[in-house]
Write a structure and sequence with these properties.
about 75% helix; mainly alpha; about 110 residues
């Protein structure tokens, strides 16, 4: 579904052994140019709006079932994926897939 398009971004990044652009720049936000910070904020807002819209639509159609507000759930999913890229480099690469699969499983109605 539509949510798979979001997850595929992280799948590719993880497969290449990289970490997320947002995650890496956000952690050093005070050292980047104001223009970079502004563009990063726009990017994050777009991603958040995109995932929130997917969750709203999925819940309305009965595909997803979750208690939190859609924006809050989107934040939780995005932060989990950001962190899983970094954490799985230190634990086990399989942990990335486990986290992603668990997020999807817990969303299903």
């Amino acid at each position: 579904g539509k949510l798979n398009a979001f997850f595929s971004i992280y799948d590719e990044t993880q497969a290449e052994g990289n970490i997320c652009l947002v995650g890496s720049l956000a952690s050093s936000l005070n050292t980047v140019e104001p223009e970079v910070k502004e563009q990063l904020e726009i990017l994050v807002q777009k991603i958040l709006e995109w995932v929130t819209a997917i969750l709203k639509e999925g819940r309305k159609k009965g595909v997803f079932d979750f208690k939190a507000a859609p924006r809050t759930k989107a934040l939780l999913i995005i932060t989990n994926m950001l962190a899983s890229l970094q954490l799985s480099r230190l634990t086990d690469e399989k942990d990335f897939k486990t986290i992603k699969d668990t997020i999807i499983k817990e969303l299903k109605a």
